Amino acid sequence: MEVFEARSRLTLMFALFALLSFSFRSSYSLASPELQILSAERRIDLASHIIRVVLTLKVQNDGASPASDVFLAFPPQQVKHLALIQAAEISGKKRKKSVHLLDVKSSDQVNGPNGAKLYAISLRNPLNTGGSVSIEVSYVLTQLLEPFPVEISQSEPQLVLYRDSASILSPYVIKQQTTVIRTPTTKVESFTRVEPSTQMRTELKYGPYENKPSYSNDPILVHFENNNPFAVVEELVREIEISHWGNLQVTEHYTLVHNGAKHKGGFSRVEYQSRPSISGVSSFKHLVAKLPPRVHSVYYRDNIGNISTSHLRTSYSKSELEIEPRYPLLGGWKATFVIGYGLPLQDVLFESNDGKRYLNFSFGCPIAETVVNKITNKVVLPEGSKNPHVVVPFSVERSAETKYTYLDIVGRPVVVLEKENVVPEHNSPFQVYYDFHPMFMLAEPLMLTSVFFFLFVAALAYLHMDISIRK
Fold first, then answer.
1. What per-residue confidence (pLDDT) applies to 111?
2. DSSP symbol at 306
């Protein structure tokens, strides 16, 4: 009996081990089906502090069954800096080229070795055995460039480091691949050589490399000059207040920091203005905010008060507000300011086919080439609005509040949308749908009319009242 129980336990242990082994292999088989990449080209743009990468893949299915997903791999040091990722299926060439957007989702259950994070691209149609498909992936990385040296004086240029791999990290075998890195200038202090590698003006080319196995990693380090201001908005709070009387009021609160190499030593304004091409070359000289067309009542102020050093250029299609901070922003320096403006309501508020009203507004930061650590959009709906519904083209955190202003009784519903790590590519429109009965527009006029009527009646009664003690 004891022998039988021991054998039963041993059989059960082997069964559990086999089940765990099968689940482990199946999890990696999801990430690495029988696919291979025939060719891969990666182009990395380091022209500003926002890194933009375009990855072109030609994938072939050598397996026995169709494949519905193609996986991408990112090293753990890039995952937390990944702001946006998009993919599209490319077919045809040149003028007959067609682009079809594909869904890209994070794979929470499947990861690669050394902490590599996988993302799944869902194909339009399953890729049959022997078939191939061309995919173009574009993604944006933020705050990945490291200033080196960390501190510079007013007259020194800004040098930064970029860390990556000469070979493309992928869960598949890559038959042929090439990586091209573009720098803002030809001033490259040094770069890691992984043969074959060449430098031609502002481009560093790694490859072509043949038959690289899956999850290949060849670390490289590029040290180059980048004097573009590292504009980072630590927090942006935007309040969009809708008034059905014909106006939309927008108020934006900024906390801006220069996130490049920190300034050391004293600051000389005379040197800054007399030698602008050398002194403070990486500082903020001005900021440009791209506002909607037909803006009015535009203002710009900081904690001290209004700032007159601003220029507004308007046209039929756009408006540009050029602003200058009260003082130059060097590395590590901060500034807080407010931008406000109004818009005609008919430009942003519309009515859907089912009778709902909806606001169509841009989500991201209007200042060019800016990274926003956290953005909060607060849409203040008119009092009496019900059933708010939000349509945003990317994932955000949503919540609700109530705001009380003049003559409000039950308060105005507020839709709050929050997102972290926002880049200019997030500057796309979003919609807020809500129900509103026109009778609610008469609430405030009727309230004012009633108040003045009762005051008139009270005054009339007081004038005709005899309050004397005796006749």
1. 74
2. B
Residues near 265 by beta carbon (within 8 Å), at least 6 away in sequence: 153, 154
Q: Three-class SS of residue 346?
A: helix
Report angle CA 253, 256, 260 to the nearest 5 degrees: 165
Edge to edge, the sheet with strand 219-225 lists 146-147, 159-165, 219-225, 188-191
Strands (E), 156-230: 159-165, 173-182, 188-191, 197-200, 203-212, 219-225
Query: Which of 158, 147, 169, 174 is closest to 82 using CA atoms?
Result: 169
Of 168, 196, 133, whose CA–CA distance to 54 is shortest? 168
Amino acid symbol at 422: V
Task: Report which of residues 273 and 429 the model is more confident about.
Answer: 429
Query: What's the rounded Cα separation, in Å, for the pair 183 and 55?
Result: 17
- For the chain, first and last CA: distance in Å? 120
Q: Tell me the whole-structure pTM to 2 decimals.
A: 0.84
Whether a cis peptide bond, with omega within 30° of 0, leads into 196 is yes
Of 44, 88, 49, nearest in space to 207 by CA: 44
Helix (H) or strand (E) holding 438: none
- Triad 300, 382, 446: Cα angle to 5°: 115
Q: Would you say 61 and 130 are in contact if contact means Cβ atoms under 8 Å apart?
A: yes
Task: Give phi and psi for 167, each to the nearest 5.
Answer: -95, 150
CB 72 within 8 A of CB 61: no
**pLDDT over 70 (residue 15):** no
Query: CB–CB of 59/37 below 8 Å?
Result: yes
CA-CA distances (angstroms) from residue 295 to 146, 375, 381, 468?
Answer: 38, 22, 20, 61
Closest CA to 352 of 297, 433, 236: 433
Q: pLDDT (tens digit, 9 = 90+) per residue, 302-358?
A: 888 777 778 899 888 889 999 888 888 898 999 999 999 999 999 999 998 888 999
User: What is the band of 93 on the pLDDT scale with cuts at 50, 70, 90?
Assistant: confident
Q: Identify the bridge partners of residue 140 per DSSP, sorted by sequence position.
A: 52, 84
**Nearest alpha carbon to residue 171 among 77, 24, 34:** 34
Q: Where does the pLDDT of residue 469 fall: very low under 50, low under 70, confident under 90, or very high at 90 and above? A: confident
Q: Which strands, in side-by-side order, build the sheet including 386-391?
A: 349-351, 357-362, 429-435, 386-391
Q: Which helix (DSSP H) or strand (DSSP E) does residue 25 occupy? A: helix 2-31
Whether the bond between 149 and the residue before it is cis, its omega within 30 degrees of 0, is: yes
**Domains along the sequence of the chain with CATH:** 31-225 (2.60.40.1730), 231-445 (2.60.40.1730)
Q: Of 108-117, 149-158, 215-224, 239-248, which range is least confident?
A: 108-117
